[in-house]
Amino acid sequence: MTTELNEIIFIAKRERHKHLFLNYRNLHKFPAELLRDEGLPFLERLYMKRNSLTALPDNLALKLPNLIELYLHANNIVSIPEGIGNLTRLQSLDVSNNALQLVCPEIGRLRSLRHLRLSSNQLKCLPPEIGELKDLETLEVSMNQLTSLPDQLYRCTSLQNLTADHNLLRHIPRQLCCLRRLSQLSLASNRLTFLPLDLGKSRELLFVFVDNNVDLRGLPSYLYNKVIGCSGCGVSAQVVKGDPGGSLDEPLTETFRLPPEVKVVCSETDNVAPLEELSMRTLHRICHQRTTDINIPKSLQDLLFLPLGHCHRCSQAMFTIVYPKLFPLRDTVLAGVHRRTAVSFVAYCCSSHCIRTFDLQG
User: Fold this and answer.
1) Residues forming a β-bridge with 92
2) Within 10 A of 300 (CB to CB), how many other CB atoms are there?
3) In degrees rounded to 5, what are phi and psi of residue 226?
4) What is the spatial distance between Cα 193 and Cα 203, in angstroms, rounded to a whole number?
5) Which residues are paired to 191 by β-bridges?
6) DSSP 336
7) How many CB atoms lie within 10 A of CB 318?
């Protein structure tokens, strides 16, 4: 096997191959011949799927400087070396189905990266430096142990497909709603209890899958006209004992969960918004109308430029309060499509007027 492998690599060097296939070869170590002398400076695509590799060489970028695609699916790799950040031309990296326990911050230096596949590993977190990948279009992190996603993901302005099924996520950053090119979001089989108020506001987001989040009982009304998956939602043991869809007579905060930033939950009879909310709305409006900079305390900057959400009726920014209105899915035309679920669409409004005039189908 070693002689055959060395001959394949020798021919690839001599003939300046751009593609090299080393799949299914029971490799336990990265082939030394690939790194000998000047390496393979012309190689652009390296396939090493379904081997038994446990590590990658630190000088990979030095010996294979022009790699565009690197496929390492189904090995036993525990970590990615810091030197990976020197593969400046790399566009696709597949390290799925390995034994990764962490991803090094240097991943953020792969500025040409478009597809990153990290599914089926042992990851408990992702480095915030992933937010530096401006050209990233696909991020797959399913089948890990993630308890959160980095807030900095919103900087991945080219992201179109985010898949994070089968993790331990209890919430997702509301910053994800700023991803204007995101078209598919899959978060099935996590531990989600609520979704960002603005999720679905972007017209580009067409597919949202949150199946089997048993404590998730509210979907933002923006998702009503999207392709959604919500089978198995809202059917946790404590919910099943009672009315699976929730009663409109019980307090709304007991029917579904809200982000912790919500300080006040209002109803149609609450006609006056708290002073704090009115002040924040005014300051937000001034900041967006002025062409010159104004001094804003840092503690308020993030909230002003990334509100809690926007009114589903008039798009007014909201910061501390919401006026929610429930539309049980079982009472909509989608009831026949989604059978094993107990969720409601929730319209988050900014005033008693908006909550009274909101129409889910309008």
Assistant:
1) 69, 115
2) 14
3) -100, 170
4) 24
5) none
6) T
7) 26
- Out of 8-17, 21-30, 152-161, 265-274, least confident range: 265-274
Q: Which two tokens stand for residue 206?
A: 């067409």
Where b means 16+ CB within 10 Å and e means fewer, 11-38 reads ebbeeebeebebeebebeebbebbbeee
Assessment of whether the complete model's pTM goes beyond 0.70? yes
Which residue do the tokens 């429930």 mark? 326
Residue-by-residue DSSP string for 311-325: -TTT--EESSEEEEE
Mode of pairing for the β-strands spanning 218-220 and 69-71: unpaired
Token pair in block for residue 210: 């949150």
d(CA 207, CA 216): 17
Residue 288 has phi, psi (to 5 degrees) of -85, -15
**Residue at token pair 């055959």:** 4
Residues 263 and 261: their CA atoms lie apart, in Å, by 6
Q: How many CA atoms lie within 13 A of 29 on its CB side?
A: 6
The answer to whether 123 touches 144, Cβ cutoff 8 Å, is yes
Q: What angle do CA 125, 129, 132 make, to 5 degrees?
A: 135
Q: Would you give the DSSP letter of residue 94?
A: E
Q: What's the CA gap between 43 and 196, in Å, rounded?
A: 44
Token pair 């080219």 in the structure block, residue = 158
Q: Which residue has the higher pLDDT, 2 or 141?
A: 141
Q: Which residues neighbour 80 within 8 Å (Cβ) at sequence distance 6 or greater?
A: 56, 95, 100, 103, 104, 107
**In whole angstroms, how large is the CA radius of gyration of the chain?**
25
Query: Exposed e or buried b for every residue in 242-269, given b needs 16+ CB within 10 A?
Result: eebbbeeeeebeebbbbeeebeeebeee
In the structure encoding, which two tokens stand for residue 104, read together? 């090094």
Distances 37 to 2, 40, 198 between C-alpha atoms, Å: 18, 9, 54
Rounded to whole angstroms, the Cα distance separating 75 from 326 reads 47
pLDDT tens digits, one per residue of 93-110: 999 999 999 999 999 999
